[in-house]
Design goal:
By secondary structure, the protein is α+β, with helices and mostly antiparallel strands. It is built from 18 helices and 20 strands. β16, α18 and β17 form a beta-alpha-beta unit. The protein is globular, with a radius of gyration of 22 Å. The chain binds 6-diazenyl-5-OXO-L-norleucine (DON).
């Protein structure tokens, strides 16, 4: 390092928590989430001596208060945890189908899907997993007392926090929608019944009381006793099928991560019931086989290659993946092997688009219904946590007595057995509804290690686009050595096998490139934004954490200390 560079570098370190451009630097730990107040909550826990798991748990509870479109206790998700020594595990707290669920529950007597009922009805609610998952993560790997981690969220719910512009957009939408979503209509009003306004303190006393029971009784505070009783009563009164037994039986599960490599880096991600890890590793393996000296980032050849790689991984996802407890013989090793990637790679024609064939056998949205948080502590332990309500504000339903929103995750099951359509609806067997089964997810919380230690922590919301935005961000860092903020903000495309088209971030792909891709046989659709990535990299030589929150989330923040 020459002296000028060194001087600038150290100046930046003096400003430990100062945001320079879109990144934040810190020496002792970092939390990146879609709400800055919640990231600060996580950092406070680190400062109290908590580890990355403690900070992630506290941040996740806080997001259930500050970011109710996606942060939740009524949904589910996944944690990938890597210790500073490089040991990795995952916690699956995906929602599951209630005991009374059946594989034709969304069909009429002619076998037709009843209007979006798998997404838009009380029967779209899966048994929530979040509280069990956070509790399990803390029990096995946390350091500070449980109550210390839940208390900040209780304070934010009971004492209130400043309402923001993003929340106002939702508040205006829901309060204008008449009586369609009564819970949501009442949710965004203050004590006198007016719609909340930016900077007004938003208090959620019922949610605060529910969180107090969770603080005092742990997992049982949600799955047994008063809360469980109220959930079951509300379900019954409104035509839902989740019972006290469903709640009592819910368990978060620790699972081995899906692992892969890219050059000298090791990649750890979420195994089924998420499809994210398998598809990510398959795509990284395929990309490793290309000559990147000759394929420049953002060129026609680059976009073609990336789209073809995605097409293949998403076809394999549709054919093979579902809940591992119901699909005992999924070919996970094969799908993530270098040999399989070689075969897949050889079949890519670099001059022509392939055609996705729905007869042999892939819905897109980028929303605010899922959220990712990344944490690293001063020892170098790392947590990558993505959790979701499925749609923005999930089912848009909840019990007013309890104050939280339920997911509509049942919509992630394949709704119509045997019916795979060119619009992306899938009907393959591994992901059909069955009692107590977990629905296939695309969430891809990921940690990459270098020399055996956590190097990159990353994840995103976005439905099926999650897998692809995480893939491209990981690739940008590992292959192009992009800074984390650049890697997050750089062009993203999305191909998911079906529908057979490339979605591209509108202003990042040039008209010339689009024309050239069309001439190769691709169909292209412009889209405003793909993903909301929250990432951290760690440089062990300089002992510096660098964090960046996607600019698509204006309330997000990378906070370090
Ligand atoms: O688990 C899944 O894959 C979906 N429920 C995630 C939905 C999502 O990310 C929507 N957008 N933010």
């Amino acid at each position: 390092m020459n002296s000028k560079v060194a001087c600038l570098y150290f100046l930046s370190l003096i400003l430990f928590t100062t945001q320079l451009f879109a990144q934040t630097y810190a020496r002792n730990g970092m939390v990146v989430s879609a709400n800055k107040l919640s990231s600060e909550t996580g950092v406070d826990i680190l400062k109290k001596g908590g580890n990355a798991v403690d900070a992630a748990v506290a941040t996740a509870f806080s997001l259930a208060v500050t970011l109710p479109s996606a942060g939740n206790i009524g949904g589910g998700g996944f944690i990938v945890f890597m210790t500073a020594e490089g040991k990795v595990t995952t916690i699956d707290f995906r929602e599951k189908a209630p005991l009374a669920a059946t594989n034709d529950m969304y069909l009429d007597d002619k076998g037709r899907l009843i209007d979006d009922s798998n997404h838009n009805s009380i029967k779209a609610i899966g048994v929530p997993g979040t509280v069990a998952g956070l509790y399990k993560a803390h029990r096995q790997y946390g350091k500070l007392p449980w109550a210390t981690l839940v208390q900040p969220a209780i304070d934010q719910a009971k004492n209130g926090f400043p309402f923001n512009w993003s929340l106002l957009t939702a508040a205006e939408r829901f309060t204008a929608s008449g009586n369609k979503y009564p819970f949501m209509d009442a949710y965004f009003r203050n004590g006198t019944g007016d719609v909340l306004q930016p900077d007004e303190l938003w208090k959620q006393p019922q949610l605060g009381t529910t969180l107090e029971l969770i603080r005092d009784k742990g997992q049982d505070g949600f799955y047994k006793g008063e809360v469980a009783k109220k959930i079951a009563k509300w379900m019954k009164a409104n035509g839902g099928i989740i019972t006290k037994k469903d709640l009592r039986k819910y368990k978060a599960i620790e699972r081995k991560p899906i692992t892969g490599s890219y050059k000298d880096y090791k990649i750890y991600s979420m195994p089924p019931p998420s499809s994210g890890g398998v598809a990510l590793i398959e795509m990284m393996n395929l990309m490793e086989l290309a000559n990147h000296q000759e394929i420049e980032f953002n060129s026609t050849t680059y976009v073609h290659l990336v789209a073809e790689v995605m097409r293949r991984a998403f076809a394999d996802r549709a054919e093979h993946l579902g809940d591992p407890d119901f699909n005992l013989h999924m070919p996970l090793e094969k799908l993530t092997s270098k040999a399989f990637a070689k075969k897949r790679f050889e079949a890519i024609d670099m001059t022509r688009a392939s055609v996705s064939d729905s007869t042999k056998f892939g819905q897109l949205y980028d929303g605010d219904s899922t959220t990712h948080l990344s944490v690293m502590d001063k020892e170098g332990n790392a947590v990558s946590l993505t959790y979701t309500l499925e749609y923005g504000y999930g089912s848009k339903m909840g019990s007013p007595e309890l104050g939280f929103i339920f997911n509509n995750e049942m919509g992630d099951f394949n709704p119509q057995p045997g019916i795979t359509k060119t619009n992306g609806q899938i009907g393959t067997a591994p992901n059909l509804v069955a009692p107590e089964k977990r629905m296939l997810s695309s969430m891809t919380p990921t940690i990459v290690s270098k020399n055996g230690k956590p190097y990159l922590v990353i994840g995103s919301p976005g439905g099926r686009t999650i897998i692809n935005t995480v893939f491209q961000t990981v690739f940008n860092v590992l292959e192009y050595d992009m800074r984390i903020d650049k890697a997050i903000e750089a062009l993203k495309i999305h191909h998911q096998w079906l529908p057979d088209r490339i979605i591209y971030e509108q202003h990042l792909l040039s008209p010339d490139t689009r024309k050239a891709l069309e001439a190769m046989g691709h169909t292209l659709t412009g889209y405003g934004n793909l993903g909301a990535l929250m990432g951290i990299t760690y440089d062990p030589e300089k002992n510096v954490f660098t964090g960046a929150a996607d600019s698509s989330r204006p309330d997000g923040g990378a906070v370090g200390y």
